[in-house]
Amino acid sequence: MCGIVGFTNGKLNIDNNKVIENMMNTIGHRGPDSDGHFSDEEVTLGFRRLQIIDLSTDASQPMYNEDDSIALIFNGEIYNYHSLMDDLIAKGHTFKSQSDTEVIIHGYEEYGIDILQKLRGMFAFAIWDKKADHLFIARDFFGIKPLYYTENTTDNSFIFGSEIKTFLKHPAFKKELNKDSLKPYLTFQYSALDETFFKGVYKLRPGHYMIYKNGKMEINSYWDINFDAEENTLEYYVDKIKETMEESVNYHRISDVKVGSFLSGGVDSSYITALLKPDKTFSVGFKDYEGVFNETNLAEDLSKRLGIENHKKVIDADEFFDAIPTIQYHMDEPQANLSSVPLYFLAELASKHATVLLSGEGADEIFGGYAWYDKTNSEKKYEKIPFFLRRLASNISKALPENRITNFLVKGGLKVEEQFIGEAKVYKEKDALMVLQDSYKQGPSPIEVVRESYLKVKGKDEVTKKQYIDMKHWLPGDILLKADKMSSAHSIELRVPFLDKEVMEMAAKIPAHLKVNDKDTKYVLRKAANEVLPDEWANRPKVGFPVPFRDWIKQEKYYKRVKEVFEAEYTKEFFHTETLVGYLDEHYTGKANRARYVWTAYVFLIWYKRFFIDEDVNVTK
């Protein structure tokens, strides 16, 4: 886990070295071990280092080639760097370090942009090529590492980096709220557009690279997910998963510092832990909610069976609420996945014992683990009716009052492209429009956000379409972003062995019926995991990272805490206050479960206050 930041030198008369140092210090949590920067007449680059591989100063960054014509800043890990290094040495390249960083430099010299096809790992990097007079910026296949960029500056400079908060330290950056981002956020629970909540600040998409030259950028895709099923037996794919996952975990364990693993009660992190067999595992739960919002005893039990030392923490409501402003600061944009909070505390706990942690993110998307991917028995029976009749019933039901039956009929007459936007779906669009002030209603609809992705999987089965949508939106926008930001907040590196290029290539061939069927979701993965896990772990239903927020805001203390924010003067800029408070009151009195509506709005308001109202936004505690 490291931090990168850079900018092209604009017309504003500034001290580039001082500015880049201020920007680097803003992300000191990403790299507390060392820093470095580079500046010439055209670009300025900065780096904060968390030492993982080759702890010597030879691996410091920015890193240069032999004649200093190439400068690199790099965040991530390249797991196949040993074989790449051997290949490059055979081709005549000379290495001064044993780091994966230097492999990218010499790989770029040898292969140019095609080096991206040879990398196996997670990364966001920028190369300043003096001879070509361009910046080459790239982000990994799945979006494990973040990369933001902007031209929204007063001096036409171009800024990029691991975290948006660094941009705030550049005197030419124009800090403005992107009004189009709020409406889709209320439904998706995360920043769902390429343009972030900061106007003119964009995310470089996963699997994409950029060439920036003479004030112009060219962005291209170099990799995409390609689901191409090949029929074979269950046993064949169980063996393939075992073989590929063992190899991936072995790659992901490579480190010159201590390695541990996050462990919940679910199959994904349990499988990774069983393959890794680290010295220590780490778990969190919530006080007074044993067995419901607290699976730490399950994690402790499995650790004992595997002969591993387990460390756990129990979080109370006060800790939860007090941490929200800091968490949203680290997230850069409002992010309403409740699991971000326990993940923050989990990373804090782990940071006291290890620097590299392995986790189970990505398994649900790759192997079909979400309940959304399956259908109820009633839905399966209903689908036997011809679609045109279900379509007619759906259209009629849309005009009727909402209830369980009409909702069922509406959904039953919709194609997957018309109803599925990803694992998270909080506000219905009509409710979002009702609660928002007029100037914040113009953002795209949820279906518009995912439309381009659906075109890429036209003709595929429904499970595959849903997997692709989640992997292009939910995974990088929510799951991986919180994993990166919450781990980096505590100066640790989180690795995700399921999200490996070779694992993806193998999993893309598994037919949908072996992933999701009448027996289970993630069926074939559970069978593979069962080889090293007890039955109760391999077959345990998915519960995610449950948080008792819905219970807490029925308590007067926390109800009032949320209500105070909803009734704050600045809230009126975005929301109809009476509608928000109405949702909160409905939940408090037990009339309806409005916990996610309340939480999603609350998080945005806490984030906005931190970045646009508080005097010193860069105070982390």
TrEMBL record:
The EC number(s) attached to this protein equal 6.3.5.4
The UniProt entry, under InterPro entries, shows: Asn_synth_AEB, Asn_synthase, ASN_synthetase/amidase, AsnB_N, GATase_2_dom, Ntn_hydrolases_N, Rossmann-like_a/b/a_fold
Q: Does the keyword Nucleotide-binding apply?
A: yes
Q: Provide the active-site residues from the annotation.
A: 2
Provide the residue positions that the database annotates as binding ATP: 284, 359-360
What does the record give as the reaction this protein catalyses? L-aspartate + L-glutamine + ATP + H2O = L-asparagine + L-glutamate + AMP + diphosphate + H(+)
Q: Which GO terms describe its cellular component?
A: cytosol
Q: Which GO terms describe its biological process?
A: asparagine biosynthetic process
PANTHER family, alphabetized: ASPARAGINE SYNTHETASE, ASPARAGINE SYNTHETASE (GLUTAMINE-HYDROLYZING)
Return the protein name.
asparagine synthase (glutamine-hydrolyzing)
